[in-house]
Design brief:
Layout lengths: L6 H4 L3 H22 L1 H10 L20 H6 L15 E4 L9 E4 L1 H16 L8 E4 L8 H12 L2 E3 L6 H10 L4 E4 L1 H13 L11 E4 L6 H11 L2 E8 L4 E6 L7 E3 L4 E6 L13 E7 L10 E7 L1 E2 L11 E2 L4 E2 L4 E3 L2 E3 L1 H8 L8 E8 L2 E9 L4 H19 L4 E5 L14 E3 L4
Parallel strand pairs: 3-4, 3-5, 5-6, 6-7, 18-21, 19-20
Antiparallel strand pairs: 1-2, 7-8, 8-9, 9-14, 10-11, 11-12, 12-15, 13-14, 16-17, 18-19
Helix pairs in contact: 2-3, 5-6, 7-8, 8-9, 10-11
The structure holds zinc ion.
Zinc ion (ZN) binds next to loops.
Length: about 425
């Protein structure tokens, strides 16, 4: 268990772990009920008291908490301690208007550091490493979360924060960075820039990267590993439950170990809300088990995944979640088939096209149709054969007839952040 920060919890017997989860859950429910009016009325309306939950399964009786509920509680309605006891405030990225404001007590901050130390330790980080944290150190949870974890391990930390790519690269080269924390898209851009500058990735000291805070595919992972000559590990977290440190990949990269002693995960059918079994894909719901300032009960994350309870090859026993396939809101339904833009992106990446693309959905004679517009540098005459090769791949892998239209590079507007490039004209 050399590469585990907290082997006691990370390799605990399921029975013992569930006992701890239940005790922490009961205490969280009482705490939330007593101090957050939203939870008091949620319980009262559903006719259940926090003392009625005597097993982990009984949590299913409690209604969900949604992002909408949190937004209506702006800024402090969900705080379960007085502001005087709140040691730090962060917020969600707030891409759609008001952000969600999240508080941490001193003890919450300590836990947060340890959870992030688990993430970094699983990437075999030690005292000799130099870690460049390229997440923003502002209200966003990423920078400070990883920073705290790195300091606990004793890594040399470079709080690079959100500076431009060329400065990130010069810091990386001059300071002999061995490990990088960033958005996967940021790592890709660094990789492209290194190429343009004529720097061979193996000439840098970089060997491992921890990427998260936006969905990314296996194809992107391969590109990052290739361009930066590193091992790329996925991690998962979200501001509403405290930020990074919820789940992480170990060296076996066989799903993300969820820090179950601090978060109780469930997967539900996003339409009916019904609980799903191990291996079944649905929406991840999280309940915090140790949060003092901002306890969350059955928070609907909007992220699609599945759970695997078999112990991992690394010896860890924490449940593993599959890499997030997409957001519930992003899921497209075409002729009854569920599809994510990320699946389209994955296929496009294996052809000489991109990076920009646009998915257009429309209806023809009552039937759903889909068109993918993508930029390609290939010459005019080679476009038709390339387009039909991509269409064949879509049909083979997704079971859908999708029209492919190749466009000149620079003609599609770049999609920003988490907004996917989808135009749905079917309602009209
Ligand atoms: Zn593992």
């Amino acid at each position: 268990m050399k590469w585990m920060w907290d082997p006691k919890y990370e390799t605990m017997d399921r029975e013992e772990l569930e006992q701890i989860q239940l005790e922490r859950l009961q205490s969280t429910l009482h705490h939330a009920y007593r101090h957050v009016p939203f939870y008091q009325s949620l319980f009262d309306k559903s006719g259940i008291g926090p003392g009625d939950i005597n097993s982990l399964q009984e949590l299913r009786e409690v209604p969900f908490t949604t992002k909408g509920d949190l937004l209506r509680g702006f800024p402090y309605d969900f705080f379960a301690v007085p502001l005087a006891k709140v040691a730090r405030i962060h917020t969600s990225s707030g891409t759609t208007g008001r952000p969600i404001v999240v508080g941490y007590t001193r003890r919450d901050l300590q836990h947060w550091g340890h959870l992030n130390a688990r993430v970094l330790m699983a990437g075999e980080l030690g005292e000799r490493d130099v870690l460049q944290v390229s997440f923003n150190y502002g209200l966003f949870t990423g920078g400070f979360g990883f920073h705290a974890g790195a300091e606990l391990i004793g890594v040399t930390v470079i709080p690079a924060s959100a500076m431009g790519i060329s400065r990130q690269i010069s810091v990386m080269i001059n300071f002999k960075t061995t490990a990088l924390v960033s958005l996967p898209s940021h790592a890709l851009r660094i990789g492209h820039c290194l190429r343009e500058m004529g720097v061979e990735p193996k000439d840098t000291s970089l060997r491992v990267g921890f990427f998260g805070a936006e969905p990314w595919s296996e194809a992107i992972r391969h590109q990052i590993e290739d361009h930066l000559s590193i091992r790329a590990l996925d991690n998962y977290g979200l501001a509403e439950v405290g930020g990074p440190g919820v789940a992480f990949e170990c060296q076996y990269r066989n799903g993300l170990h969820i820090n179950e002693d601090h978060f109780y995960p469930e997967v539900i059918n996003p339409t009916t809300g019904e609980a799903l079994g191990p291996g079944e894909e649905g929406e991840l719901v999280l309940t915090t088990l140790t949060k003092e300032a901002f306890p969350m009960v059955r928070f609907r994350t909007g992220d699609l995944t599945s759970l695997e309870y078999k112990p991992c090859e690394c010896g860890g026993t924490l449940v593993r979640m599959a890499r997030v396939k997409g957001r519930v809101d992003d899921m497209l339904i075409i002729r009854g088939i569920n599809l994510f833009p990320s699946q389209i992106e994955d296929i496009l990446l294996s052809f000489e096209v991109g990076p920009n693309y646009l998915i257009r959905l429309y209806r023809e004679e009552g039937l759903d149709q889909m068109e993918v517009q993508v930029e390609s540098p290939v010459a005019g005459g080679e476009r038709a054969p390339l387009a039909s090769r991509i269409m064949k791949e879509f049909l083979d892998r997704l079971g859908l007839d999708i029209t492919v239209k190749l466009l000149e590079p620079g003609t599609i507007e770049v999609s920003k952040g988490k907004q996917r490039a989808v135009v749905d004209e079917r309602e009209i």
